[in-house]
Amino acid sequence: RARMTQIPARGFQLADQQALDRQQKLDRDLRQAIGRNQLRLLFQPQVNLRTRQINGAESLMRWEHPELGLISPAEFIPIAEETGLIVDLGRWILGEACRQAAHWPSPIVVAVNVSPIQFQQTDIVATVEAALHRSGLPPSRLEMEITESQDLVDAGRVRDAMWRLRNLGVRLSIDDFGTGYSSLSYFRDLPFDTVKVDQSFIRDRNSDADRLLLSAILELARKMGKSTIAEGVEDEATAAWLAEAGCTSGQGYHFSRPISDLELTGLLEVERRH
Ligand code: C2E
Ligand code: CA
Ligand code: CA
Ligand code: CA
């Protein structure tokens, strides 16, 4: 395991040992978490910035650990990626997200986070086809969020899978856009529908340079025919600025926190009646 070998022989601290113990415990327990019903998905609404109507929701994992309480995906997803458990976990997530979204009114889209490892170590296309087939969700109502990373462009396997998914009619989104190395080459090399601008760009609009950079990303995406979504929208000033700058959608605490399937269905029902 990479994480273990990274720890230097000298200077090994008690704190390191405790962190390692926790990781190993989480790894062990995560293997049983699916079967023991400790995992669930929450959904965070994605809102059209012009009409302010919900046009989709991102599925976000939650793990209710019996002793340790609620554990953040920011902690357990990297462990699952390192141990390969992300493959089984990712299959469960896709199945579950499609199953729940199939009950939402059309054309509400479910956006599911997928790890680059799922592209490298499994036939992700077969997994997606199975999830769609079993749930009856139309492919156009599934969007896969792929975090930008060097591997995306380098690996022909990933690119090939992205084309096949696109041919199925599934939507593809580049997550955390602007934080990786090769953001601009994606436009040339990869098929995708949506640019999801990382929340660091949304929050730090302090200098002229920050604002110019964000506007330029939004404009480039629009000119390349991509839709855009901003994550981490926390106030109305930000939402209004983004709408003015031509950003398609927004997601963040200003609109809603991640909520249960039941709560989301309720919100959609209220919107439908108005
Ligand atoms: P992400 O994909 O960048 O997701 C956005 C994170 O920002 C979520 O954290 C979300 O709850 C949080 N967030 C939403 N609105 C706001 C806001 O207005 N302000 C701020 N400050 N934060 C906001 P969360 O749910 O803890 O997820 C953390 C990360 O874990 C995600 O980052 C994603 O990379 C990963 N993750 C979550 N669920 C899954 C999953 O099912 N599969 C995979 N592979 N990764 C997942
Ligand atoms: Ca995401
Ligand atoms: Ca991410
Ligand atoms: Ca992000």
UniProtKB/TrEMBL annotation:
Domain of life of the native organism: Bacteria
Domain EAL as annotated: residue spans: 23-272
Record protein name field: EAL domain-containing protein
Shown stretch of the complete protein: 497 to 770 of 773
